[in-house]
Design goal:
alpha/beta, Arc Repressor Mutant, subunit A, Aspartate Aminotransferase, domain 1, Aspartate Aminotransferase, domain 2, 3 domains, seven-stranded mixed β-sheet, four-stranded antiparallel β-sheet, 20 strands, globular, binds pyridoxal-5'-phosphate
């Protein structure tokens, strides 16, 4: 028979089958098309094929032809007849293609055996059961409208719940209208800096140690990131007045990242005063403010002045970074310029997570989880500090009892060398240098150690590896 049309698709009950170009006689052409689809991995071993009746109808050819094609391909080893009825691609088919195994998916990024990098919570403690219940209630009760394109500012239910929660737990002055839900604090910061750049800001002060990705976000928006020194009382606010042209300062006031100190109360007042006098803004990154172990967490700076502080919060430390849930609380006059950096229908956090989070907070599960994790992390931090004191007397840990990391300073050694020694013990820690602003003149050095990431079963092994690296 003459060549058939190229690239035809055949529909079956519950199965779409795409065969390539069928050429030559119908029988030979169909056999070749099957072989080619298996060779190219478009039909993987175990793929169920349509019945001969359905395929014949879809291709407009006689059923007997399909029956013969199937039976010949079975005898050649490409297909297997299933017990009862049905046909599937044979598990041995890959041997006929000359490949011994199927193509492997790309390998995930390699994980260190012991992971003490900062930034990760204990993922194995994610409250799966309670989250499942929240998701289930969400799917059962969400209005149909929620399944469509919704407000890029975020679901109103979550914005209202967050406004109440943040006022209660972090001392914010917030209304739902000022809350924007975003895909983690990282997206929140991108929206903020793009909005500020649009409003005419050109320079933003940053702490001399901080997240490189945050400095990059500033640069990408065309803003200059001007470093200010950090000492044991946090960022040196007095220097802001000496740096002309600043439009804002980015701070981690509750727990400096990564040095681990809190902004002194005098400096909290001074930075608010600076913002009011100069008509500038404070961007408050409250990434782990819930975790203070010696006393109640200090309230957010935003509580002191909701007109000059842009608040950035996240579920990445309190729950899991993979949820990609973060929130901004904006001064009234900035809501429009910052939220307009999102597209018209761009919903960067899907409604299921947003409404599940609403449910999770409203049911009290979020508070319970944070309390449990606080106790868990407090114990870990204590064990880490005791281990270091016992096994490495020359080492000092910097920072207050808070958050999910500590900084280790070893005067006689540099941080990068320590991180390399750790790597030889299959332990990942991060040198302080990784967080240093390129123009910083600080001579502080050390490694940043996250104590949250290992699962309970991996924790003691990680501590042992650290002791070996510190020797
Ligand atoms: C200082 C700081 N801010 C914010 C974040 C949270 O980012 P996100 O919410 O995008 O996960 C992190 C996470 O590592 C962080 O270390």
């Amino acid at each position: 028979m003459t060549a058939r049309t190229a690239d035809r698709g055949a529909r079956t009950t519950g199965l779409d089958l795409h065969l390539g170009h069928i050429s030559g006689t119908v029988r030979a052409g169909l056999m070749d098309a099957f072989r080619e689809a298996i060779r190219a991995d478009r039909l993987a071993p175990g793929t169920r094929l349509p019945s001969s009746r359905v395929l014949a109808a879809d291709l407009g050819i006689g059923r007997n032809t399909v029956v013969r094609v199937y039976s010949e391909l079975i005898s050649e080893g490409w297909l297997t007849a299933l017990r009862g009825s049905g046909t599937e691609v044979s598990q041995r088919a890959t041997e006929l293609t000359g490949r011994r195994t199927r193509r492997q998916p790309a390998r995930p990024r390699s994980q260190p055996v012991h992971d003490l990098r900062p930034g990760y919570p204990d993922l194995s403690s994610f409250p799966r059961e309670e989250w499942i219940r929240a998701v289930k209630r969400t799917i059962s009760t969400a209005p149909f409208e929620a399944f469509g394109y919704t407000d890029p500012h975020g679901r109103s239910e979550l914005r209202e719940t967050l406004a109440r929660y943040l006022a209660r737990a972090r001392g914010l002055r917030a209304r739902a209208d000022n809350v924007i839900v975003c895909s983690g604090a990282a997206e929140g910061l991108r929206l903020v800096v793009a909005g500020l750049a649009k409003a005419g800001v050109t320079k933003v002060a940053v702490e001399e140690f901080g997240l490189q990705t945050q400095r990059q976000a500033l640069l990408k928006a065309g803003l200059e990131a001007v470093p200010i020194p950090v000492d044991s009382d946090g960022a040196d606010i007095s220097l802001l007045d000496r740096s002309p042209g600043l439009g804002a300062v980015l701070l981690t006031p509750s727990h400096q990242f990564p040095l681990g100190v809190a902004l002194h109360s005098d400096r909290r007042a001074a930075v608010v005063d600076w913002a009011r006098r100069r008509g500038t803004l404070i961007i408050e990154d409250d990434y782990d403010g819930e975790f203070r172990y010696d006393r109640s967490p200090v309230g957010a700076l935003q509580g002191l002045d909701h007109d000059h502080v842009i608040y950035l919060g996240t579920a990445s430390k309190s729950l899991a970074p993979g949820l990609r849930l973060g929130w901004l609380v904006l001064p009234d006059h900035l809501v429009e310029v910052i939220s307009s950096q999102k597209g018209e229908t761009e919903e960067t956090a899907g409604f299921v997570n947003q409404l599940a989070m609403t449910d999770f907070i409203e049911s009290g599960a979020y508070d319970r989880h944070i309390r449990a994790m606080r106790a868990h992390y407090r114990r870990r931090r204590q064990q880490l500090v005791e281990t270091i004191r016992q096994h490495s007397p020359g080492t000092q840990e910097a920072g207050m009892p808070a958050g999910l990391h500590v900084v280790l300073e070893q005067p006689a050694r540099n941080g990068s060398e320590l991180a390399r020694r750790a790597a030889r013990e299959h332990l990942a820690v991060e040198p302080l240098d990784l967080f240093r602003h390129p123009e910083s003149t600080s001579d502080r050095d050390g490694v940043v150690i996250g104590f949250a990431a290992p699962s309970p079963s991996g924790w003691s092994g990680a501590l042992d590896a650290l002791v070996r690296a510190l020797r």
